[in-house]
Amino acid sequence: MSAEVWGGIIWSLVPTVVLGLIFWFVMRMIVRADRDERRAYSRIEAEERARFAQEHSARP
Q: What domain of life is recorded for the organism (predicted)?
């Protein structure tokens, strides 16, 4: 196979690979942000539940 054929193959695959990598990075950032947001929400909710339980158990 000549260099022109290999060059054509490489130049035809590069845009697909680059777009695939961009898509992968964006999806990875979205999934990580969602995971971090859920973790923070769970932590805040646990703190609120603990505070609520403490306030209502202290009352006579």
A: Bacteria
